[in-house]
Amino acid sequence: MTSIKVRFAPSPTGRLHIGNIRPALLNWLFARREGGHYLLRFDDTDLERSKEEYVEGIREDLSWLCLTWDAEERQSRRGERYAEAAAALKAAGRLYPCYETQDELDRRRKRQVALKQPPVYDRAALKLTDADRAALEADGRKPYWRFMLEGGAEWDDQIRGYQRIEASAVSDPVLVREDGTALYTFTSVVDDMDFAITHIIRGEDHVTNTAVQLQIFEAMDAKPPVFAHHNLLIGADGGALSKRLGSLSVRSFREEGLEPMAVVAHSALIGTSDAVAPHHNLESLSALFDLKKISRAPARFDMEELRGLNAKLLHETPFAAVKKRLAALKIKDAEAFWNAVRPNLSTFADVQTWWAVVNGPVSPVIKGEKFCNIARDLLPEEPWDENTWGVWSNAVKTATGAKGRDLFHPLRLALTGLEKGPELKFLLPLIRRKKAQARLAGNPA
User: Fold this and answer.
1) E strands of 275-362, at which residues?
2) Of 57, 71, 67, residue with least CA distance to 13
3) Beta pairing class for 233-235 and 174-176
4) Which domains does the chain have, with CATH numbers?
5) Share in percent of the chain as helix, strand, coil (round to 5)
6) Which residue, 364, 88, 78, is CA-closest to 220?
7) How is the beta sheet containing 174-176 ordered, strand by strand?
8) What is the pLDDT of residues 1-10, one digit of tens each?
9) Is 8 in contact with 201 (CB distance < 8 Å)?
10) Nearest to 390 by CA among 428, 439, 344
11) Which residues contact 186 (CB under 8 A, 6 or more apart)?
């Protein structure tokens, strides 16, 4: 049985954003479900735009999302291997030299469009004689190299089903630049072949690339991987996300205080037949994962839905999962505090707001001085527990005749200084009697 091996191949020209997270995550979930191998490969052959700070940033982003990798590779270190593979294709007659400038190609393409012809490369370079090529090189031109496509390419896409693309609809791709460096279309095939990648899960914007790369695999006598092209993201309004991707980075999610498992669950579940719901670990998502569940329709990304999912995740999170985080904030009676406030959290950072309410000082809001004085006098002696609030509020109700909002609202304002918040039956034992007495008297405590 062939061992499953997948790869996530970001270009380190920026930090990861929501569009990158999905292929990174879908490949990871597939590999873990199948007991496979997950390769992190940096496609960093664009030496001008690739930066080491982005390499480190991508590692940091993946680690925050808990997407561990089994091995790491860098394309920038494999130049000799790409040159060797290119030489083999040249010898086989599948890689041929071209000399057009970009301006010449642009003018030719515009003519084709004007004549209502497909804007594909016309293979003019194949008509050049040895003398023509020698003259062009003597004039200072250096060749770049195109791969000669033949016929078409077809494959059984694990998400999109049967696919076929005719070579006549696609230009012969440039695989090697004038300076001899290889381009993505080629380096990816060489790497996928050398590192025995069995499955490639990537966005449907790569479908045409796949048709080209299948022919390169064939020309190099290599068995191609299985391909699956997932749906792309659109905004909540149905519009394109492309202009907003920079503001939807992993770093921005982290800075907003979102939980990594909220980001991961949302990314994994949108655009699938599964409900978008909280998941507390990657194992439960991996068990649920199935390529057949991914829709052909675009996946709708809604920032408010992500924030709502983050809140739901926190509301379900047990104390044991946050014990260390609460200890780092020096929160006392941490388990009782967590259970009291978690239904009111949007992000974990909100615990500091509620700890300030419990620990003080709080500036109380007094609505009815006489009412608050009676309530203060009726405060039971400690120890307090969850039943104290019911006993005390009933006593205040009997003494004042207040009920409903007229009873509970003034007590909340005095004890917390806020209009709303966690249930007072859970907060009161944490505030304790001394602070409650001071606040009911109108004194900050």
Assistant:
1) 299-301
2) 57
3) unpaired
4) 1-73+231-316 (3.40.50.620), 80-153+162-176 (3.90.800.10), 320-445 (1.10.10)
5) 50, 15, 35
6) 88
7) 95-98, 144-147, 174-176
8) 569 999 999 9
9) no
10) 428
11) 82, 85, 86, 147, 175, 176, 216
Give the model confidence (pLDDT) of 39-61 as tens digits: 999 999 888 899 999 999 999 99
Average pLDDT of the segment spanning 70-91: 97
* Spatial separation of the C-alpha atoms in residues 25 and 39, rounded to whole Å: 12
- The counts of H helices and E strands in the chain are 19, 12
Contact 417, 362 (CB under 8 A): yes
CB proximity list for 239: less than 8 A, separation 6 or greater: none
- How many whole angstroms separate alpha carbon 22 and alpha carbon 253? 15
Residues 6+ apart with CB under 8 A from 124: 100
List, in sequence order, every residue forming a beta bridge with 323; answer none if it has no partner.
Answer: none
- Residue 371's SS3 state is helix
Q: Token pair 């041929």 is at which residue?
A: 96
- φ, ψ dihedrals at 322, nearest 5°: -120, 5
Query: Which pLDDT does position 2 carry in this prediction?
Result: 66
Mean pLDDT of the chain: 95
Please give the structure tokens belonging to residue 323.
Answer: 């014990």
Distance, CA of 153 to CA of 168 (rounded, Å)? 11
- CA atoms of 114 and 111, how far apart (whole Å): 5
Residue 59: helix, strand or coil by DSSP? helix
- Percentage of the chain beyond pLDDT 90 is 93
Tens-place pLDDT, residues 140-189: 999 999 999 998 999 999 999 999 999 888 999 999 999 999 999 999 99
Angstrom CA distances, 393 to 286, 374, 388, 399, 425, stand at: 48, 11, 8, 10, 10
- Predicted model pTM: 0.92
CA distances from 148 to 88, 107, 183 (A): 14, 22, 15
Q: Residue 440: phi, psi to the nearest 5?
A: -65, -25
With CA atoms as reference, report the closest residue to 206 among 160, 147, 242.
160
Q: Which two tokens stand for residue 94?
A: 């599948």
Burial grade of 80 (CB within 10 A; 0-12, 13-18, 19 or more): exposed
Query: Which residues lie closer than 8 Å to 64 by C-beta, 6 or more apart?
Result: 250, 254, 260
Residue pointed to by tokens 């999109």 = 160
Tens digit of pLDDT for each residue in 388-412?
999 999 999 999 999 999 999 999 9
Evaluate the omega torsion of the peptide bond into residue 361 and state whether it is cis, within 30 degrees of 0. yes
Measured over the CA atoms of residue 16, residue 22, residue 24 and residue 25, the dihedral's sign is: positive
